[in-house]
Write a structure and sequence with these properties.
Blueprint (H helix, E strand, L loop, with lengths): L4 E5 L13 E5 L5 E6 L10 E6 L3 E5 L6 E6 L6 E7 L9 E5 L13 E5 L5 E6 L10 E5 L4 E5 L7 E6 L6 E7 L13 E4 L17 E4 L5 E6 L17 E3 L5 E4 L13 E4 L20 H8 L3 E2 L2 E6 L16 E7 L5 E5 L2 E13 L10 E4 L14 E5 L7 E9 L2 E4 L2 E2 L4 E2 L7 E9 L5 E6 L3 E5 L1 E3 L8 E11 L2 E2 L2 E12 L2 E3 L1 E3 L2 E5 L2 E3 L3 E3 L4 E4 L3 E4 L3 E3 L8 E4 L5 E4 L5 E5 L4 E4 L3 E4 L6 E5 L4 E4 L6 E3 L4 E5 L2 E3 L6 E3 L2 E5 L2
Length: 659
């Protein structure tokens, strides 16, 4: 059984009130759906004039004073399910009646036991069974009032194959009717198609009449492609969570899913973006603080997989909120960029919040040749541990050294701390001086979730002043491919992929492994040895320090790595609590063109362990050292050596001077 015709009538009391400039908006659900204007409701289809074919889109159609009726005709056998929509041109000319006609070739095919499934969208929508299409509304029999739900309506006999929906005059300017044939109908389901939608908000009113796989092309600032699917809806308890950036409920409970690949046309050419998690809106254009987006998800969805050929700056005006991880596999951010040219890519700019301020009363500068750490005492001798300042970010404010920053390494005495200050703008190490103002800060949160970065092409992604990754979770910041730079960031677990090149400037890391190439300017490392493995490389380009754990070049399970200490970029290993300063595994090399030294309250068990098949090569006059001297200075292959017994080669290992 196939629905053959659907008839929509405005049936206005005063047709002349439409006026020649009024428009009736019509929407079709199939390429087989055509629009006709009739001079009278009972006119034969053969006498109609075809205006246009609707191929899944929508259009406006002018209404002349003498043609108030619009007919949608579905060719017989072409469509088993259909829909029509009408919106009145103005409140005073609201639609009065919607008439749905099965108009079957053989009415007896319905049978007394057959039913139509009908839905209504308003308390004013009622269902009646008519004996003939032209029957007057006054002679109809009201069957039920539909309050936004759905029910089945019996077709009682072969003589009454017509179902009429009546909207009370003036009470509803917009309405929609659906019809589906009996379950045994042989007609094919409605094909997937493409429809136009004015906004993402309008998606909530579209769906019931459309097949799974239907594509909606949304207009406006969030112009994008959405696909209708039957799937569990995202958890509504997430409220304003970013899940709803990429999903929308259709009016029948199915879900519109955003295409995160194609993005919003032109988004990759917008050079300036703002995100304000508190006051932004994901329907805004995002190019000023006052029109900021609300979520990072929206920005990433708009850019999609478009190629970025310019330098884009994204300023984030507040902590990114935590995410409901039940709504995302892994609960992570994935920043995947396609770039073109070395100057292309995205820079994310965060910030720091100052929690306390002091000035320097005394300063001891770093002195690598004598294993002396940088230590700075503050006026008033504040109790940094008691004030919860021991693990804060520290910045110099004002003067010639303004902007130099570091992760506080540890509190060394009452009112004193150690830190390795670096100034990213000049790529240089900085020593605080007496009188300098020190701000204790917290960097902006990047959501406290794992973050994965993939950059294709010659461009890069940069992060400035964020805490990135998930607290207490290793491997929660992964740069899988391409170039990435972090400035003034605290990274909660960093993995550098084999095809990645990462630069850190004045950053701190908690667990860090390089399988690609990692270049470090300043900064500090905590929690497990910093590691180069699987042929990965770590370079120091200015002073770098670790605390509690040292360096592992290669591992016994992940294979060899390489660690390069460049001239002018010494490495200090402070308070090595695991008992070993540096481990160099088989096939690995550590090349030290500057000092590599240990400093601990008590002597560590083993300073430098060079496994069989490994090499430690150092600059003449800059032998690796420890203060106090390690209990075992070096173990080379299977042989223990003192500092006076190097250089040494034996047992398949080497602790030698650079050539």
């Amino acid at each position: 059984m196939t629905v053959e015709k659907i008839v929509l009538t405005t049936s206005l009391q005063d047709v002349s009130s439409i006026g020649t400039d009024r428009m009736l908006r019509v929407r079709g659900a199939s390429a087989d759906l055509v629009l006709h204007i009739l001079g009278a409701e009972a006119s034969d289809a053969d006498s109609t004039v075809r205006l246009l074919t609707l191929a899944g889109a929508s259009d406006t159609v002018p209404l002349a004073d003498d043609t108030p009726f619009a007919r949608y005709e579905v060719a017989a056998g072409k469509l088993g399910t259909g829909t029509v929509s009408i919106s009145g041109p103005a409140a005073e000319t609201s639609a009065e009646k919607l008439v749905l006609s099965a108009s079957l070739q053989d009415a007896s095919g319905i049978g007394a036991g057959r039913r139509y499934s009908v839905r209504g969208g308003s308390d004013d929508l009622v269902v009646a069974i008519l004996g003939a299409e032209a029957a007057d509304a006054d002679s109809t029999v009201r069957i039920a009032t539909l309050t936004g739900g759905s029910r089945t309506v019996p077709v009682p006999s072969d003589a009454t194959p017509f179902v009429r929906y009546q909207i009370l005059a003036g009470s509803l300017g917009t309405g929609k009717v659906w019809v589906t044939g009996p379950a045994s109908a042989a007609a094919a389901p409605a094909p997937a198609e493409t429809v136009g939608v004015a906004s993402t908000a309008a998606l909530a009113a579209v769906g019931t009449d459309l097949a799974d796989g239907t594509v909606a092309m949304v207009e406006g600032p969030r112009a994008s492609r959405w696909t209708l699917m039957t799937m569990p809806a995202p958890d509504e308890t997430a409220g304003a969570s970013a899940t709803w950036v990429n999903y929308a409920l259709a009016d029948d409970g199915r879900v519109w899913v955003r295409d995160l690949a194609i993005g919003t046309p032109g988004a990759a050419r917008q050079a300036i973006w703002y995100i304000n998690p508190s006051t932004g809106s994901d329907t805004a254009d995002g190019n000023t603080p006052g029109t900021a987006l609300r979520t990072l998800d929206e920005l990433l969805a708009r850019i999609g997989e478009q190629t970025i050929a310019i330098a884009i700056t994204v300023t984030i005006l507040g902590d990114l909120p935590g995410r409901n991880t039940s709504d995302w596999p892994g609960g992570n951010y994935t920043i995947r960029l396609n770039t073109e040219g070395t100057a292309s890519g995205i820079t994310f700019i965060g910030g720091t919040t100052v929690v306390d301020t002091y000035s320097v009363s005394t300063a001891t500068a770093w002195a690598d040749a004598t294993q002396t750490r940088g230590e700075y005492t503050l006026t008033g001798l504040p109790n940094l541990v008691g004030l919860s300042l021991e693990e804060r970010w520290v910045k110099i404010s004002g003067g010639a050294r303004d902007g130099a920053e570091a992760q506080l390494v540890n509190a060394t005495a009452l009112g004193a701390f150690c830190a390795n200050f670096h100034k990213a703008s000049t790529w240089s190490d900085v020593e605080p001086q007496v009188g300098d103002t020190i701000q204790f800060c917290d960097p902006m949160s990047f959501g406290n979730v794992p973050v994965t970065v993939e950059v294709n092409g010659l461009g890069s992604v940069t992060f400035e002043h964020f805490e990135i990754g998930k607290l207490f979770e290793f491997h929660s910041v992964v740069v899988a491919r391409g170039k990435a730079m972090f400035k003034g960031c605290r990274l909660r677990g960093l993995d550098v992929g084999r095809d990645a090149y990462v630069t850190l400037s004045a950053c701190s890391t908690y667990h860090c492994t390089s399988y690609g190439e990692l270049d470090m300017y300043g900064g500090a490392h905590f929690s497990s040895p910093i590691t180069a493995a699987r042929s990965g490389v770590i370079n120091t380009s200015s002073r770098f320090c670790t605390r509690l754990f040292g360096i592992s070049v290669g591992t016994s399970t992940d294979g060899p790595g390489h660690f390069q200490i460049q001239a002018g970029a010494p490495v200090a290993i402070l308070d090595a609590s695991n008992g070993v300063g540096v481990q160099i595994h088989a096939g690995s090399t550590l090349s030290a063109e500057d000092h590599c030294w240990l400093k601990s309250p008590a002597a560590v068990a083993l300073g430098f362990h060079v496994y069989e098949g490994a090499v430690l090569a150092y600059e003449a006059g800059k032998e690796p050292a420890g203060s106090p001297a390690p209990i075992e200075y070096a173990r080379i292959g299977g042989t223990v050596k003192t500092s006076a017994e190097i250089p040494y080669s034996g047992d398949g290992a080497a602790f030698v001077v650079l050539q």
